[in-house]
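Researcher: For the record, we're logging two predictions in this thread. I'll number them. Prediction 1 follows.
Model: Prediction 1, sequence and structure:
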Amino acid sequence: MNSLTKENYLKALFHLANSENEISVKDLSDNLGIRMPSVNSMMKKFSTEGWVIYESYKPLILTEKGRRKAALIVRKHRLTEMFLVEKMGFGWEEVHDIAEEIEHIQSPVFFDKIDEILNFPKTDPHGSPIPDKEGNIIKNNYFKLSECKIGESVEFVGLTASSDDFLRFLNNKKLPLGTSITILENEPFDGSKRVKYDNQEESFSQVVLEKILVKKH
């Protein structure tokens, strides 16, 4: 089993798993761009490793052993992204592809040193939680900006999706993590909102609002 391929499968399982740790084989196939027969074959191998529960024509179940192994790959990715932003000056929209390469380095001490240099961050540059060395993740009580009501002031703390295009959009709007946002208007017709932050006003579509995670002050 190729190590890079194995880790890419595990990471996809981690991101696709629902609250019951279930993943459809089709979703996994679509996510990875790999044909269903190949995915089924790999999942049978994962089953023998104890990483998933595999039964024909049923959703995959990511086991605790599999979830922990996957979380440690996610840890390497998110630590790398944080290092690239904090220590090397990359923009948050530039780091994903580089981290995709570095996360496959098989050297725990290397990533432990990155963690130490960064003073043990809890989140990556996009506000996503960084799993600890045991694969545990702190659950944050964040909610979407789309759920906010007129007059509410909240802090921008994370993203539900962090495509490079969306991150560049936020850069153009001068909206970094940590920004305080106040809701000025709701538009019931299309779900858009007019908001204010840093002495500027913007109208955001529902598509944008759904991708921005916030917390109350």
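Researcher: Logged. Prediction 2.
Model: Prediction 2, sequence and structure:
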Amino acid sequence: MDRIIYLDHAATTYTKPEVLKEMLPYFTEIYGNPSSVHSYGRETRKALDLARERTAKALNADPAEIIFTSGGTEADNLAIIGTATANKKKGNHIITSSIEHPAALHSCQYLEKNGFQVTYLPVDEYGLIDPQDVKEAIKENTILISIMTANNEIGTIQPVREIGAIAKEKGVLFHTDAVQAVGSIPIDVKDMNIDLLTLSAHKFYGPKGVGALYARKGVRLNHISHGGAQERNRRAGTENLPAIVGLGKAIELATQDIEARNEKLRALRDRLISGILSSVEYTRLNGHPTKRLAGNSNFSFEFIEGEALLLSLDMKGIAASSGSACTSGTLDPSHVLLAIGLPHEIAHGSLRLTLGDENTEEEIDYVLEVLPQIVQRLREMSPLFNQDKGGKIYV
């Protein structure tokens, strides 16, 4: 094919033209520091305030509750480490899940090395957390629950509203990493009883290098970076104004007509899933069959290795992923796939295909044409899978 079929939107999206258009003047024409008191600074402060208002509106929050960051990773760190250290006099126990993004997991592991206790809840075969498990894990010294809204690898959507209600009832702060969810499912921090929420612009057609943390008014939050008094003295450093302007525009666009966009994505996703499962033997769909993000599909193909599959697809003009973009440089199997019960050898043969606004039926049909051929070729090369006259022999 002459062009790449991009099926890795969970890793990143492109920046939409209307978002870029709104950003451009803040590189060259309107370049004042928002902290300056002169006219240049006042003009950029207006743009910063507008982006904060747009972000807050998308979440049903107050603008004063939005803290701009360098992305989802910093926001996760600020939410988990910042609230844990600020509330350590109340307790030192944190609850999270075994399938969180590394930004959340590594923040929890850092806290464990510094005197905190962390409970990592298991998930079922679909990657779902049981709210009852959350409730039973709460102790007198529990100060924070951190459960992602939707998984970045397998797309499973968690019962966030129920977990938020439990946290509120028990007087425990509730943080959710919603990096994959914002723009894909409606988010209402008040209705869902969310105290802290993480988001990142490049997941919903905004620029890279910018994100935000929603922190409910009254939540105690310590610095994790030290310097100036920007972001109401909660995140030091001069704001990345062009990127923040882009985030504000992107989240405004992404949260309009979510269901209409999801209807299209679900149709393409289901066409892809049914086509692969019906044409490729010894294949498993990972994640919940219905409680999943509209654009997410994740498969495990037995007897092959995911990296070889990705390279073969790339040679055919198909860009995909074998898991989280943040860990794709490692050879270890996905911690998410291991957590849902897959053995190492099957977890290694995973493929994540995530759809976006520009994908078409023709592109899906092309994937369904070439993928079975690639899988068959790789299996024939595998020492675990051989074809004989009597059929398939597993060695």
